[in-house]
Structures are given as C-alpha cells and as structure tokens.
Amino acid sequence: MTALRLPARRLRSVHDRLLRAYGSQHWWPADSPFEVMVGAILTQNTAWSNVERAIANLRRQRCLGPRAILAADPAELADWLRPSGYFNVKARRLRDFCAWYQAAGGLRRLRALDTQVLREALLSVKGVGPETADDMLLYAFERPVFVIDAYTRRLFFRLGLLESAKLGYEPLRHAVERALGEDVSLFNEFHALIVRHAKEHCRARPVCTGCPLARGCRG
C-alpha cells in the first residue's frame, strides 16, 4: 500500500492562517509533566473544562502525584474525578498508569528512553491508546510526535487533504510527521490550533461565517 503523502506547503499554510486567527495557544496547560499525563488520561471522552475541574479536585486533596494517587482510597479518587465523566473507569486507569509510572522509574528514567521505545511502553499501559500516548509524548516529554484526533481528521478531510475522515491513526500521523519534519514546537502549536479551530468553526455542523480557512474548504 502506498504511504499517504501530504503537501508540506499546504499544511504550513493552514498552520500559519490558524496562528494569525487565534494566536499562540500556550498548550498544554499544566504545572508539571506528570499533570500533563494525568490530563491526557482524564480528557478521554470529555471536554477539557471537565478535566480542569477534576484536576482541581486532585490538587485540593494534595493528590496530584503518583504516590498520592496510589495511596488514595479508590472510591474517594473516583469521586474526585467525577467531573471528568466515566469516573470509575478513569480512576482505575489512572491508578494503573501510576503503578506503571513508578515501576518504570518515573520521569527521569522515562525521559532517557528513545521516543519509539517510550511510545511502545506507554501503549502497554491498560487504557492508554495512541492518541493518549502521543499527547503525553508531545506535551509531557516534548517529543516530535503529532497527535491525531477526530478534529484533525475532520479538518483535513474538509480541506481536501484526505479522501476519507476515517483514515487510520498511524498512516495519518506518519504522513503529517513526514511532511512537517521533527519540530516539537510546530507540532505542539498546530495541534492546539486545530482543537481551537474545531471548537470555533470546524464543528460537526460547521460555522463557516468568519472561518479563517473558508478559502479552499469544501465544507
């Protein structure tokens, strides 16, 4: 099968137009790499505003570290995570992740791993899929890995960059990375801008009035 090719100039043009429209997004909002990882787990199937409330609960309980999370009563932990939805599942996933994180040697040892080795290690944790792992790689470990989400597929399809919005995760990730090169800051900003644009204009029902990408979009 021929690998997907995306035009680098077009992608950079999309990035530049979004940046002019919205400015730098300063994403991911967190006080530490570990907090980024917690947020990546909690943001599954929910809005970021709900994650912020759950993280605020953990901070209020002084439970925003792997040891504190593992030491917490599971029922209480689930209750603190309630704003993020699916709180019982997420409490188990968060505990599983923290157990793995500590056994792996924590941030210092994980940072020393090659990107692909680290990615495979993250994916071995129950409840951590490709998007969650790549959120962690890009935003917590500052690795040149592009995060693919439903917003990215929708936008690229509407711009005519993809034949289908249902393209698999890995082919699209590799295509973006090949086109843009290994640029952590670019990947960080571009993904954050796509998320912002999806909320402002590129919704399931698009809001085309005032869209900075209206030119060249097939809607």
Question: If you had to describe this structure to a student in words, what would you say it looks like?
Answer:
By secondary structure, the chain is mainly alpha-helical. Helices cover 60% and strands 0% of the residues. α2 packs antiparallel against α9 (130-140), α5 (74-80) packs across α6 and α8 crosses α9.
**Over the alpha carbons, how many angstroms does the gyration radius reach?**
18 Å
Number of helices: 12
Low-confidence stretches: none
Q: Would you tell me the structural class of the helices and strands? A: mainly alpha
| Total number of strands | 0
Distance between the termini: 28 Å
The general outline is globular
Mean pLDDT across residues? 96
What is the helix content?
55-70%
Order of helices and strands: HHHHHHHHHHHH
Largest sheet: none
Strand content: under 5%
Key features of this structure:
219 residues, mainly alpha
Quick structural gist:
This protein is mostly helical and 219 residues long.
SSE diagram, text form:
Blueprint: H1 8-22, H2 33-42, H3 48-60, H4 66-71, H5 74-80, H6 87-103, H7 106-111, H8 115-123, H9 130-140, H10 150-158, H11 169-180, H12 184-200
